[in-house]
Amino acid sequence: MKTKNIKMWYKVFNFWLFGNKLPADMPITKTRSKKYLGMFESDVVLVDDEVEAHYAIEVSKVLNTNSDEYKATLIHEMIHAYQFVLNLPVDHKKFFRKEAKRVRRITGLNVL
Question: For residue 11, what are the domain limits?
Answer without folding.
Answer: 3-107
